[in-house]
Amino acid sequence: MELLTSRLKISTLKEIDFPEFEKTLNEVQRTCLGGSKNFFDWIISQYNNMDIINGLISLGMFDKKTGELLGTVGVGKHDDLHEPEIFYQLRPEFRGHGYVTEAVKAVTKWAFENYEIPYLIGTVEVSNMKSQKVLERCSYQFIDERTLLVHAEGIQYRFKYYRFYPAK
What we know:
The protein has five helices and eight strands. The chain is an alpha+beta fold. The strands form two sheets. It has a five-stranded antiparallel beta sheet, with helices on one face. It has a three-stranded antiparallel beta sheet with strand order 6-8-7, covered by helices on one side. Strand 4 and strand 5 (84-90) form a beta hairpin.
């Protein structure tokens, strides 16, 4: 699977991508499923089903010119809300250049072209203003604030909950 935007190639990850993929992970991701390699292998295994309703699809966000892995973007079932959610992670050195906005727009469009879903959600910690701006630039509508237990950490966080409805 591959999506092309003006600056990005968004595609399934391959074994050769693991060293760069590891640079995209936060601490929780590095330790879940027994370590970063196990987490990566689990993501790769999700491509067998390509199911955003009951699983997830995490894609590499690659610079079209250099081929470098900038981060990840994907869609899949939110662990706690059980709704299809857009998610993204960008390496710190590439933030602030519009890459995530470009990727979220492309993956959102792809999701609605390939799956029968009424909407996608986005959840962002209330203090993460930059990520909230990404969703807003991509036409996700703020719905409300919620407190959610993040099972991977066993900690409750305050999140802003957004929804994207496709144009009719």
